[in-house]
Amino acid sequence: MGATPAPKPAGGDSPVNTTQIVQALYVALCGAIGGLLFWVLCKYSASTPKEIAGWPWFGQVGALMFIGGIAGLFGVFLLTASQIPAMRTYIFAIVCGLLWQPIIDEAQKSSGNVLATQQTQNVDNQAGLVRAASANGNPEQVKAAVGAAVPVVTQAIRKLSDVQDAQKSQDIVNSSQKAITELQAAASKDPDSSVGALKDVSIAASQGHHTMLALHAIQSLQEIGMSSTRPEVVKESLASLQEVAAKSDDPDVKKAAQNSSFALETNKATPPAPTPAAGQGPAKKK
Q1: Taking 80 as the threshold, does the pLDDT of residue 60 lie above it?
Q2: Which candidate, 121, 65, 53, places its Cα nearest to that of 93?
Q3: How far is 54 from 5, CA to CA, in rounded Å?
Q4: pTM for the complete prediction?
């Protein structure tokens, strides 16, 4: 008879197995103990958090133990990736439960940074696709690339205010600036989609009071209208600037959109003076 194969540990092939769940429960329990210690210290120092100060004692204990358990899980698994099982890891979980407020704040900041990094990468990727389509694609491909980029860029701009890390916030701004530049360049092949995209980006930026981004998009709209020889593109650029001015609650953006609209309307409304034919002088006055 052949050797009996050794049994595989339960859940060995799954991302989360029973052992890991049990360890996580122990970490949460230790964090809950830390939350209970926090309540005891608050009672001795008469400094119960105002959010739960009016609750009965058992409600306060339950809330703080729950928050402490969450803080323990955040501290061990999200912020430090501590070795489990290890006695110092469980002690650290108790400390996290005791100091739950800074632990949860740091966990929120960490997760926010991860999301901000993803948004920056998404905007960069979409800007690259628009650039490639503008360089090598046809108008339909440019239109598709621009259409895919707009929701990504506007979403990143709307989430800017939620990013606590200054560097991560600046990364999103820089990526959005590049995307606006690429959207303007796309007007060489499909001005209609480019104008619509810049209008949406400008409105999103102005409503979030991200003035620099909104002004960049407004300038791009004006330049597209000024450089175009197609009346319908000029008309659409002008209408977009007027819509930005109407929908913006940022006074600087509103004023810039109105000024750009006026400059575009004035420039395109005044036809250029006819150039005299060769060998002819200027027309004589009668």
Answers
A1: yes
A2: 65
A3: 61
A4: 0.64
